[in-house]
Amino acid sequence: MHPIDSKLPAVGTTIFTVMSSLALEHKAINLSQGFPDFSMDPGLIGEVHRAMTDGANQYTHMNGYPLLRERIAEKVSGCYGAAVDPQTEITVTPGATYAIYTALTCVLRPGDEVIAFEPAYDSYIPNIVVNGATPVLVPLSFPDYSIDWDRVKAALTPRTRMILLNTPHNPTGTVWKESDFRALEALVEGTDILIMSDEVYEHITFDGYRHPSILGFPALRERAFACFSFGKAYHCTGWKIGYCIAPPAFTTEFRKVHQFNCFSTNTPAQVGLANYLEKTEAYLDLPAFYQRKRDFFLERMRDSRFRWLDSKGSYFVLGSYGHFSQEKDTDFAIRLTREYGVAVIPVSVFYQDGRDDKVVRFCFAKKESTLQEAAHRLISV
Ligand code: PMP
Ligand code: GLN
């Protein structure tokens, strides 16, 4: 036996697997892990099928299928007015999680500090730690979870190498306003601090709000890795395909890690997506599509005891229950699954110190019939 001295001693199994397994075990409705339970567009499936039958079944270019990179550049230009070079600035990856990990890995060295906001998507902190760097955590406070820029400023040290942001935000559903990007701009001006911008929910925003990508802020873009996911945009989270956009010098380093970890991403999916991407309504219609789901769920839950926090984007809405129960949120989430047959995510798991504000996350990326039945079960909680 040669035991491994764990690089991640504090890490267990991700909450998404824990809660989805519990949901399965109890035959509960799964509003925990974020994924749609409705069908994706058969048109996109058809494109991938066609790619396979046409013989696109071998490795494609390690940086991504060239036409797909061109189409991504067109999309980014249309959405954010940003000119991006498909040759030197876009790399297609097996998902955004991988892209984020790769970006951190090509930058971080032991002793570096990375500022992350909590609650933090669960892969961020382990990604920092496994690279020998130190997370510096800035809390987003319940109930509005807005960014306190004075706290961010106070967290900066000469060792700060990176700031990791996520908007629209998982798990809170909050979004960065243009003023947040401007505050970040002012903060990093004159420093060598880099930025990791996780924008996987770029197309899922509500109430008329439009996502301002970091790519639209030249002074930030020149120091940023921006990561995106087709899984969210096209209802195919299981395909695990996304991309990273970064300035040429960053992309060169990104690809050095990428080429020996994955080499190239699934070819037929890339060919299919390249042909499908011209159908801009597929992502431009998403705000209205998901807003209807959010509103449908909240309307059905109107008479429940939960207090709902404002969700401006993402698949998620937070429900607070501290006014009627003092149960730990992890216990509460398990009890909802076992006793009420609806699985949710406890928000304390997104804090390193387990801070528990008595809030749980509900995923509304579901069929109306699923949301209706979940609401029916939850109304008596
Ligand atoms: N970042 C956030 C905030 C997410 O919610 C997700 C969800 N899966 C990801 C990254 C990962 O995306 P992908 O499935 O493309 O790896
Ligand atoms: N991003 C999804 C969520 O927040 C889950 C993805 C995963 O399981 N890693 O629920």
Outline the structure in words.
Helices cover 39% and strands 15% of the residues. The chain has 381 residues and is of the alpha/beta class. The chain has a seven-stranded mixed β-sheet with strand order 2-8-7-6-5-3-4, with helices on both faces. Strands 9-10-13-12 form a four-stranded antiparallel β-sheet. Glutamine binds next to loops.
Straight-line distance between termini? 49 Å
Secondary-structure-based class equals: alpha/beta
Radius of gyration: 21 Å
User: Could you tell me the mean pLDDT?
Assistant: 97
- Helix percentage range: 25-40%
**What would the principal axes of the Cα set say about the shape?**
globular
Question: Which band does the percent of strand residues land in?
Answer: 5-15%
Bound molecules: 4'-deoxy-4'-aminopyridoxal-5'-phosphate, glutamine
**Low-confidence stretches at least 5 residues in length (pLDDT < 50)?**
none
**Spatial strand order of the main sheet:** 2-8-7-6-5-3-4
Number of helices: 15
Biggest sheet statistics = 7 strands, mixed
Number of strands: 13
Helix and strand sequence: HEHHEHEHEHEHEHEHEHHHHEEHEEEH
